[in-house]
Write a structure and sequence with these properties.
This protein has 6 helices and 2 strands. With 149 residues, it is mainly α. The protein has one domain. Keywords: Membrane, Transmembrane, Transmembrane helix. This is Membrane protein FxsA.
Length: 149
């Protein structure tokens, strides 16, 4: 917990240090334009995120068997990359580019088609534990003169 808090405190200073070092090498106007363009890219990504999420979901549902967890989380990664592009600084831009890389993660098996129901050929587990019998319900009758309401 302390490490996360420390990273959150150091992050703005690291962004400023990287921007100043880059401005020293290529010039202040170029760095300003780079930050402005990355912010515009982040805004564009966030505005067009809904369409991308729908297209991604549609393509995942059309796949037959193996779906990657990273492909399911693509809309979330895309939106987070847009937010990171909106933040001024090169470290956040580098993190956003890393989020947009097409990394293929572990697969998730999706079951397609209707689920088979229990049948006589393959009974569900524990089906042999059924005890058949008859029963009758016996209700106690209230005493005369006293009615339940």
């Amino acid at each position: 917990m302390r490490a996360l808090l420390l990273l959150l405190l150091i992050y703005p200073f690291a962004e400023i240090a990287v921007l100043v070092a880059l401005a020293d090498h290529i010039g202040g106007l170029a760095v300003f334009l780079l930050v402005l363009l990355s912010s515009m890219l982040g805004l564009w990504m966030l505005r067009n995120q809904k369409l991308g999420a729908l297209l991604t979901l549609g393509s995942v549902m059309r796949q037959d068997e193996n779906v990657s967890l990273y492909s399911l989380l693509w809309p979330l990664r895309y939106a987070l990359a847009g937010v990171l592009f909106l933040l001024p600084g090169l470290l956040s831009d580098a993190l956003a580019v890393l989020l947009l890389l097409p990394i293929k993660g572990p697969g998730i098996k999706m079951q397609t088609g209707p689920r088979p129901g229990p049948s006589a050929a393959n009974p569900p587990p524990g089906a042999g534990d059924v005890i058949e019998g008859e029963y009758s319900r016996v209700d106690d009758k209230p005493p005369q003169g006293r009615h339940l309401q």
